[in-house]
Amino acid sequence: MLLSLQDVHVHYNKIAALQGISIEVEEGDFVTLIGSNGAGKSTTLRTISGLERPSAGEIRFKNQSLTRLPPDRILKLGVAQVPEGRRVFKDLTVLENLHLGAFTRGDQAAIKSDLESVFGHFPRLLERSQQLAQTLSGGEQQMLSIGRALMSDPILLLLDEPSLGLAPIVVEEIAKILLEINKRGVAIVLVEQNAELALDLAKRGYVLETGNVALQGEASSLARNEHVKTAYLGI
Amino acid sequence: MELFFQSVINSFIQGGFFALWAVGLVLVFGVMGVVNFAHGELVMVGAYTVWVLHSQYGIGYIPALCIAVLLVMFIGLLMERFLFRPKQGDPLGGLINSIGVLFILQVAALVVGGTGPAKQVAPPFPGTLIIQEFLRIPNQRLFSIAVAVAALLLLWFFLTKTKLGWSLRAVALDREAAALQGININRTSMIAIGVSGALAGLAGALMAPISNIYPTMGHNVIITAFIVTIVGGIGSLSGAVLAAVLYAFLHTFVTAYFSGTIATMCGLLIMVLVLIVKPTGIMGQKVSE
Amino acid sequence: MRKTPKSVFERKFGRRRFLGTTLAGVGAALTAGMPRISLADTKTVKIGMNIPMTGDYAPWGLPGLYGSEIVANNLNAAGGVKIGGDTYMIEMAAYDHGYDTEKSVQGFKKLVLEDDVKMVMMLGGSTVASIVPWAMRKKMLTTTLLPSDITPDTPYLVATCESHPLYNVTGVEWLAEKNPDLKTAVIITTNDIEYGKQSAATYKAAFEVAGIEVLDTNFHGFDVVDFAPIVSSLLAKKPDVFCMATDVYTTPIVEQLFHQGYKGKIVSCTLDGYQDVIAKTSKEFVEGLVFQFPDFDDPKLVGGKINFPDPGGFDASFNKDHAGEWSAVAWEYPSILLNWVEAAQAAGSIEPTAVLEAMKANDSPAHTFGPGKWWGAELWGLDNAVIGDWPVVAINDGRARIQEFRSVYTWCQTNVAELSKQMKDLDLRIA
Of A221, B182, C31, C360, which is least packed with CB atoms within 10 Å of its CB? Predict the structure, then answer.
């Protein structure tokens, strides 16, 4: 087991955002979390990364507890996140953004080869490596955000709504790259509103409703589920 | 015409100081989200340190200056660890804590220096560089401006050319996203306030031989730093430096040709105008979502 | 008189006032608990000082308390003072108002009601104005260092020592006599009413009377960080005399004059800490700089008509305990204390109204630098200031030395019309 959440509760002030969520991710897995707005998908990712503290429950990564660790320690263990809204450092260049992704690493040779592999995934970032991130288009910023996360050489990659606000053609491109990354052995947890796309890409899925896991299973079987079809796939 | 040339010289010297005061304030605000009201007092402590060590105990000016830099940096670090960190995410709490520090440092200065007239430090670099009979620069000011410019260049190099510098800017731009890159926010805050304190200590040490030294001298510093910071764009270092030089020119020329009171009024007026018309300042950008 | 920078923030927060009071309170609590040693047959009379001991104005309060304690201790050590058949020990009771008008009222009432002081010595300005209604109702003998605080409604407020800024006239008069070729002057001063404008108006009158044209007067605030621009603009007028009417910033101003190559004469109201000025410029540059406040070890203060016991000894004992804290008020408050002793002895009473009556009855009251005269009606509406001779001081070979004594009284009598005109021009209150 790579990552497991056991009965995780999270409260914002007094309001419960997660009410006992249990999720499991295997090594090299591709898991998606789907659900409507406010179901707790983003909160789940934020909690794994240490941006939120669970009020109860346990998060374990490679048999180590993450529950009380700060974000920088969690990243060091191999959990990287592509946050919602991309959140690239707009006043820094593309190259500086990518280097910050590798902030905790010291091995220059390995960083260099990872940089090359990111540029391999996203040739446009190489063309624009000296530009300020704020000059990039939305899709390019998303690529930069993913590339930045990859620069930490993660074991597990968390992605929060990577398709949001992007043109279909760009979404497709990003989807292709996610599969490539997964194929290289990086486990992925993908939060998506576009459930159709998410279930298409992922191996397994969880359906979150009001802070609880409502359904879970193989992505393909979830896609055939009547409830999922009516509620999330619009069929 | 003589007044014009002399005023240009005066402006550059003043601009160097204004910039030195403001960048430290901007750095701490950007990285930590705290308005450090005690920033002017940190400058004051730098000046007092030089007065005590150099004028009272006869230690050389340069060693005294270095000790001032380190001491004020250390005070900054203490402030971060014990006052600002517990108030993370609470800008008002941080502000109030910094006002507390302001009081404490002023009283400390009174205890160290006593009352009496403002303290003075004899210039370690006496004499005047006379370019023309009407164009004169005191050697002490020449030294100060050279050191100030060097310090600002060093800061610029650190922030734009080193990974640690990028991490500071990343935290200033987006704390959470920075934390997700493995950047330790507490450590970054320590670096920011350490650099800010060092610059404040340096500014104080450079001011010591050319201005009155008294417990409340920090007020003029903080007011000018606020004007420069707001006009330059809160959180923008290059904006602060540019605004510092522009404001110094405005202030110096208005003072020379009209009056100092009008000059300060102009500064405040421009600050208010910027707040109304372009709240992000001349170089500032919209805060990212 | 001089004054330090005053900030808006300080007025708002007033934290040193808080701290000062706390410390004073703790001190009072501690001493109150201690047994008092009382000497048989001697009484104690308390003299109050309602002054700034913390804050920016502290340099014009605290050194005065130190000085007064030296003089009081000397009098007590000599067996006290005999007043009306009783022997009194003098005790100073001080309150720190931090130059806050409300705390000044509080302190004044505390000194009068709780400490039962027989006179209250104050600095002047807004902190005196705020206590005037209550003090006058109580008929409390009160002193100020600023004669301009006197109005027709302040019969119990006197200024027996410092004649700020009237003494400025003697320096200008002396300089003009020695240098008949001086034609023009510029003045730099702080832009406050209590100190800066009073002093500037007096200098303007003095220059006018001396036939020197004032080309420019620069009123600056207390927020000046760098005097280079102001000095540049004043020097562009090519004056023969550069006049500093207030001296908070004399050091940085003279420093700028030095660096900007000024060659003319310099006149200043005061020059506390002139050794610093010399250190920042050169002995040669400040040679002949004229101001109004002597060192108290000056040989010209020995003997003659000087009404201050052993100025040299006073200077030495002040500098032994409070080195570096000397300012003009160090001897001015004690000087007023001595005026009180003289008047109380004449009255045979320590009661405020009786002492005041004796003071005013004296046609030639003892002023620090010789016999004085009651004056002020023509300017402020009441003859409650004592003016007399005042020294003209100049830097000679790196030391402040009295050049000669000149009569402020004679100048004022002759030129009060010009003085009134200049005061009026700067919107200052005159009778």
Answer: C31
